[in-house]
Design brief:
The protein has a seven-stranded mixed sheet with strand order 3-2-1-4-5-10-6, with helices on both faces. The protein is of the alpha/beta class and about 260 residues long. Helix 7 runs antiparallel to helix 9. Helices cover about 35% and strands about 25% of the residues. It has a single domain, classed as Vaccinia Virus protein VP39 (Rossmann fold, 3-Layer(aba) Sandwich).
Length: about 260
């Protein structure tokens, strides 16, 4: 499935997304939360892997990971990150195999199927459960809509944790649910970076694809006052006291994590 938050991405936006992940430890925390559902002898199929940020967190704790996304840009970047990790002596990166393909074209069976912010309709998502021998792990947004670094509300097409919970119960799947609140805001190295970011917020077409909380979801129908968003974001920038990233724009993300027994 596509990672639409990276649509039209350039290297700077990818770098900023990585910085947001590292600064807030967002994907690291997700990896910890799903870690007790994994096993060192199990294989994982990650559908809609994006940059593979969760995969790098869980790779030390599983046998292998097949990371699938049909966006060539993110698969290329995932492969580059594997090389960087190996150069740094992190041998577990060899366990990750990035594949550029549509999820519907994947065949085979893995112990675990992982779908984080997959964006598919639940009935469509259910088709991919057949690839799992033991468990399916699904990560979705807990809320249907939320502010974009400020008071804006977008009309989201995303499915919520409550809706997924109801669907799994209706289909008689035995599952465990966890709700987690985490930060996934944007850090900045310089005041110029802050200004550049705020300028992009004022462009709705660009702003919608650089915001971390949109992640892998399908592009929403945006309905907000762009100038108000940029102004509110500027007012909410905080000083971190850190040398590497002295400025930070907070963004709270609520997620639902599900472990489905097969």
């Amino acid at each position: 499935m596509p990672s639409l938050w990276l649509a039209k991405m350039n290297s700077k936006k990818i770098t900023m997304f990585r910085q947001a992940s590292e600064f807030t430890a967002f994907h690291k925390k997700l990896g910890v939360l799903i870690g007790h559902w994994l096993d060192s002898e199990w294989s994982v199929l990650d559908l809609g892997c994006g940059l593979g940020l969760i995969d790098f967190e869980i790779a030390p704790h599983v046998k292998s990971i097949t990371a699938v996304d049909y966006d060539e840009t993110v698969i290329k970047e995932c492969k580059a990150q594997i090389e960087r990790e190996l150069d740094a002596g992190h041998g577990y990166a060899e366990k990750i195999e990035p594949i550029c393909a549509d999820a519907k074209d994947i065949s085979g069976e893995w112990d675990i199927v992982l779908m984080s912010f997959f964006g598919a309709d639940f009935n469509d998502m259910k088709k991919y459960f057949n690839h799992a021998a033991k468990r399916v792990i699904v990560i979705v947004h807990e809320r249907a809509s939320s502010g974009i670094f400020g008071p804006a509300i977008f009309k989201s097409k995303r499915r919520t944790a409550a809706e997924l919970d109801a669907f799994l119960k209706k289909e008689s799947y035995v599952h465990t649910k966890t709700i987690a609140e985490m930060q996934f805001g944007q850090p900045f190295k310089t005041i110029d970076d802050v200004g550049d970011f705020l300028e992009r917020l004022e462009d709705a077409d660009k702003g919608r694809i650089i915001l971390p909380e949109l992640m892998h979801e399908g592009e929403p129908d945006i309905d907000f006052d762009v100038e108000k968003i940029a102004l509110n974001a500027e007012e909410r920038i905080i000083m971190t006291g850190r040398y590497d990233f002295p400025y930070y724009l907070p963004c709270n993300v609520s997620v639902g994590l599900f472990c489905v027994n097969i």
